[in-house]
Structure formats: C-alpha cells, structure tokens
Protein 1
Amino acid sequence: MKPPTVPRGRFAPSPTGPLHMGSLVAALGSFLNVRQQDGEWLVRIDDIDTPRNVPQMEQAILLTLEQHALQWDGDVYYSSQHLVDYEQVLRALQAAGQVFPCTCSRREISNHPINNQRQTGDTLIYPGTCRAGVTADKPLRSYRLRVPTSAIEFMDLLQGPQADTLAISVGDFVVKDGQGQHHYQLATVVDDQIQQITEVVRGADLLASTARQIHLQNQLGYRQPKYLHLSLVTDALGIKLSKQHGATAVDNTLAGQNLITALTLLQQQPPDELQHVPPAGIIRWAIEHWNREPLKSFPIATLPTTLPD
Ligand code: GLU
Ligand code: ZN
C-alpha cells in the first residue's frame, strides 16, 4: 500500500458479534477524526481469533457501516489473509532474541508469587520463568516478547500523557500461542504498519494495550501512529457496552437516529433539525462540525446513556 499523503485512520472490528452502540461510536469517532482532515478511513476485519469468529458476521458489520453512511476507502482488509506477514515478523523478532518460547501454563503463572496480590480480572503478570531458555520435557505453550524495565511513554490525544512500565504491568507478553495462532498485539501492529495507519482512534478499553503495541513498533523500527482513545460507552447501569455483556446490535433501519445518539455520546451536540435528515446528510454535518475538545471533559468510562432498548 502506498504511503499516505493525508492522515489515515482505521476501524478494526472483530467479527465476533454485530456492531453495538459502543462500536458505532468508535467507528464514527475514527471516521470523523480523519475525514475532517480530508484523510482516508480504512476498514479492517480483525478475524484472527478464529474460534470466536461468527460466520457471515463481517458482512453484517459492513452492511451496518454502509447503512450509517460510513463509507470506507479502498478494499476491506482481512487480518486472516496476513498470517504469513505475522509469522515473518515473529521469526525476525525471535532471531533478534526478542521473542522466546515459553512452556509455562496459565496455572503456573497465576500461582507464582508475583501474582499473589492479583484480583479477579486483573492481567496476569509473566514472571519471566523461560527468559533464559526452556527444557524439552514440557510442551511449548507460547512465544513471548521481552519487555523493558523502563516505562513506555506516549501522548494520548484525548486521555493525555501516559506511562506504562510493561515489566510491572504485564511482563513479557504472548505474541503467538502453542496452537500457532498469532495474538492481537502482534497482528494489530503489523496490520497498522501494512495499512500505513497514521491515526489510531478506538475505545479506551484498548488504552492498556497501547504500550505493548508501541514497544513492538519500536522493536520493529515502525513509525508510531498518533493515538486517541475514546471514552467508553456505558449503559444506564454504568456497565460498558460489549459483546460479552450482550449489548444489542444497532438496528440498521434506525440509522439516522443511531448516528444522532452516537454524535451525542461523542459530545458533538447535533442540532434537532438533523432528526429528519438521512444518514449521509448527518455525516456531512458531523464531518464539518467535528470537535474533539468537549470529549476531554469526559474521562474514561463515564459516558452514561439511556439507550433505547
Ligand atoms: N478488533 C479490536 C476490537 O474489536 C479492535 C482493535 C483495534 O482497534 O486495535 O476490540
Ligand atoms: Zn514460561
């Protein structure tokens, strides 16, 4: 793909369920951010987590984007068509001594004293057991990337300055599992590089992944995109909308209404007149008026909303 001469953003849904209001907000936020700069917006189907993929789901997702007038540039990119690229990168990292094989089971890692203070739901920290090598008598469980003891620092355009010491927060993390499946962090970094993405706008649930991705970019000599993590959309009870919690699919027949809700959640104050305007017109208004400043008053995970059920 040619290097972009304009900002280039992307929306990277996993085909594990239909788009819900939270994913529509992420799609719209990344779309408006680049479209206002006359930039390009690409769609990537993040379909490497094969067991969780739902057949035909990518068609449903693309239809929802179309019906909401979120028109993308170029061809849709499928991560599953880039396994060779991930493997090549993995081998290069391994040859450079950055990636090493690991035989630790999940139980061994969670029973390690380093994880004593861990609460349910916290990320397990890898204690570094296999850093110096493994013995042949245990099965291979994963390949891990070494992490530095110094903090990875970066600026998030919405959440402000960030610092994450990966050695403390996660330890050497998995880039490929024992079944041969490459993991999200590696795949996303390679995909963002292949697609030459310059601006990553996505939900704040992925803020915690960003330092891992920047560390990978640094190891690979990739250019770092700008990052903006949007506040998460919660339901009226304060629970993050997610596929796991069965958030309802957006109804394509209510596209205009959905866009107005999404714009309201993005603090864009769409005027009442837009209620009767078709999706393409709402999108035109939104591109023209996009302003991320008001979002700064709404920190992570506090976008309460009462969505129609
Ligand atoms: N596929 C990921 C998700 O749906 C998003 C990946 C990304 O934006 O980096 O949560
Ligand atoms: Zn290990």
Protein 2
Amino acid sequence: MDYQNLANLLYKNTHTTPEYYYEKFPARKLAPGAEVTRTAPSPTGFYHTGSLFGAMIDKFLADKSNGVFYLRIEDTDQKRQVAGAADIAYNALCKFNTKPDEGFMGEGKPQVGDYGSYTQSERLEIYNAFAKRLVELGRAFPCFCKQGITLTYNGVKLTEGKEDVKERRAQQLQELGEIVDHDPCRGLDIADIDLNLKLGKPWALKLLSKGDPDKTFEFVDLIKGKRELHENCKDVVLMKSNGIPPYALAHVVDDTLMHTTIVVRGEEWWPSTNAHLEIFNALGIKPPKYAHTPVVCKLDEETGNKRKLSKRLDPEADARYFVEKGFPTVVINEYL
Ligand code: GLU
C-alpha cells in the first residue's frame, strides 16, 4: 500500500505537519524538574468533585516544582456539551483555590499562555496534521463500517451491509480472543478506499494496532507503581466521521504540544492507557508520566458500603454543591 498516496487522498486539505507544530510550540523554558500539569474537563454540565481532586494534585505538583498548571477545555464531544460549562469549571477551580496559571480563563476572556488554543474545538487543524502523519506511517486507516463497505471483486462492485460487517467482526473477535479488536476495514486496499470515498461514505480514522495479545510490557504509573500492561490490540478511533478526534488522539497531541510532564487523570482511563501509549509510540513521541487517581467515594447510606460518587445520584458530585451548602472551600480542599 502506498501510504503517502492514501494520506493525500484522505487529508488533501491538510498541509501542515507535526514538525511545523513542534517548531511552533517549542519546549518550555523551565528549570529542570519543573512539572507541567493540566486539568482537562469536558464541558458537559458541571465540574465534578473528582475532577477537582485531580486538579488539586496537578496544582500541588506544579507549585511544588515551580512548574505550570494549566486548564484545557476538552470540548470534542459535541453531543454532550452544555453551554457555559467551561466557565463553570474555571469558576470552580478559582473558588476552590486551584486557579490555573495558564490556559482557558473564562468565556470571552483572552486565554493565557503560548501553547494555545487551550480549547480543543479550536485545534482541529493541528489534529489533522497528526492524523495524516499516522496514515503516512501506515498506522491509521479509514473505516466505513457504519455504512457498510463497498468492495470490488474481479471488477464487480459488491456492498457488504452494516449487519454483514458487524457479523464478520463478531466472528473475528471470537476467533482472535476478546482483547483483539481488529476492524474489518483495516484490510481495504487503496482502490476500495477510493471507491468508498467516491460513493460519499462517511469514514472514521482508526489506529492500526500492532499489539500482540500474548505480550505484556512494564509500565510505571506514578500512583499505581510498576504494572504489567497488555499490548494494545484494539483499532481505536482516532478521528470520528465528523472530523473531530476523540480523547485518545486529542490528548496525545495536546499533551505533547503543550509539554505536559505529568498527566494526572481518573482511574477510569487506566484500561485504555495501553492504546494511548501505542499512539505516542506510533508517532515517535515520548509519552508524559501518568498518575491515575482513585475515584472519589462516599459511604452509601442504604448499604453502608463505600461506592463511587455518582453524577446521577449524588448532588455532592457537583463541586458547586459545597459552596451552595455553605462549606468553607478550604475544608473541602482539606477533605479531598
Ligand atoms: N476530558 C477528560 C475527562 O474529563 C480528561 C481526562 C484527562 O485528564 O486526561 O475525563
């Protein structure tokens, strides 16, 4: 397969490269040992108390090392977005003594720092450059599965409907074992890709995972310590069919260009860490350090057991709750 040709076919309007951005956003001028951390909320309604917990760790690490703590708005999930939610996050950080040094500073206010925009929806051109590079390297391919794929067999066009594709995939998953999830579209040749594009089929970009399901590697998490991780065998989505990247690619690109040194994030991201590391690896980028924080829990009044704070059931999952109830903010900081 001529990957360069494929990259030009898929990203014909993308003329910038990762190198261009590496030059545009050079290393920060900080003393050795200074940590760059960030809180990266998705503006989906309220600022979660668990996010505040993470942000406090971020700020502590940055302050202690004379580093930088910044706020990035991860607004790539358009369906879940709520107007005004980015401001809610910023205001909660300020209220709870966790004001960012850099980044988003409120709607309509100028952002602070040389590594912006700090709002992901304003960075689509940048993501395209990295997506294109992954195609050039043979590490990403377009997936048409949602619509069914059209293929040419001996000069005859045949379309596999969405259900056929799903069935083929289920069969494959069973054969390969659960942790391998190779997408049926990874086998399309360039003529078939061209054909599907000409038919106007929407496509998503997926990672061509190269992991071996029988292999593990050692990974040191700053909180969990040394762990064995399975190599990633999932062709995860890098770009959705609307041209917007999900978290996996967006955070790899942003944390690289913004020079984050420690990603402090919730435990829920731990299972996809191997996929994120594969993306860094495919791009030839050294990943930052990771610290996966435990989820904030409460004692369930009915069962007496500890459980995760629930967005749906617990009003205190929203950091503003404590302000409304009159708790001094330092008490909440201390508790967290
Ligand atoms: N937008 C992600 C979230 O809200 C950020 C995770 C991270 O900090 O990397 O969960």
